[in-house]
Each structure stands twice: as C-alpha cells, then as structure tokens.
Amino acid sequence: MKEKIIAKASEMFLKLGFKSITMDDIAGEMCISKKTIYKYFCNKEVLIQESTELVHKQVHELIDTIVAKNYNAIHENFEIRKTFGELFNNSADSSPIFQLKKHYPEIYQRVLEQEVNQCEYCFRQNIEKGIAEGLYRKNLDIETYVKFYYILIFHINENTSSEKEAKRIELEALEYHTRAMATPAGIIELEKNLLNITK
C-alpha cells in the first residue's frame, strides 16, 4: 500500500502541484481513508520527499532507456526532452521544480544534491558520444560544457514559474548548447530535429 500511495501522490504532485494537493485529495483519488495515508507518512513533507525520490528514479530509468536505443547524440537529447515533456505534462501550468523550491526548500535542496552527479554524468556521456560521432567539435572542454548546460537547465526550472514558459526556454537552451558544440554535420542534425518539433 505504501508504494501505491507514493506512486499516486507523485503523479498528482507533478500534474497539479506540490502545494495545492492535500492528503485529503490523495485519499479521495485512491478511495482510501486519510488515516491509512498517515499510517505510512507522518506528514505531507515526508510523502513529498519519498515521491521526489521515486520521480528521480523514474527519470533516470527513462534516460537509460533512451540512451539504450542508440540514437545519435543530438537526436538523443531531443528524445530526452520530449520524454520529460510527457512525464511533466501537468495541468497546474507551474513548474514542479519551481514549486518545490518555493514551498519546500529543504526537500528541493536534497533533490538538487541527488541530481548533480547523475545529470553531469549524463551530459558528459552525451558530449563524448557526439564528439566520437563527429557531431560535436573535438576540441571542446567537456567539463566546462557539462557545467554550462547543467547551470542553464536548472536555473530555468528553478526560476520559471510557468511550466509552458520553462519548456519553451529549455528548447532554446538545448539549441544554444548544441550550436555551441556542433560541427557542420552537427548543425545539419540539429536543424533536422528542430524541424521535427515544428511539424
């Protein structure tokens, strides 16, 4: 039952917001009593903490699944962005990371600490792959570009309240990041992926 509550709460928090969803809402959605939820979680903050850990795990499993499909480095980044868009497709029109930072700063800080190493590892792997494929320039300072992109993406999400606006700026950031690294062949692949989005 505990795992079911975490799964349902995660889904509701991402779609409707960490602040607006109450324990009553979760109980009602699951057709259980609020008392049952409190049997496993002493308060909402503990449930949010466990929910963010589940989402963290799901996100990195999704990334691993996409990487395993062996797309080229640029297409891989666009597929990851598309998958994230579907996962975080909420009706609250408010960025989950922005909400977490604003209303639950301690939990947000823990999420950030968890994400740093894994995100930097993913970005590094992508850049190394792109260089090997001839899509990114060979003379890149990989560590600097990893940090640039990490700072850029997290700054957008933690400072943009509107989910729609965050997604728009994220696409601009991905294009900016890719153009900064791309070879002529990489630019062609980038333009192809951008065209696919507009279709």
From TrEMBL:
Keywords: DNA-binding
DNA-binding residues (ranges): 22-41
Name under which the protein is recorded: TetR family transcriptional regulator
One GO MF term attached to the UniProt entry: DNA binding
A family per Pfam: TetR_N
HTH tetR-type domain location: 1-59
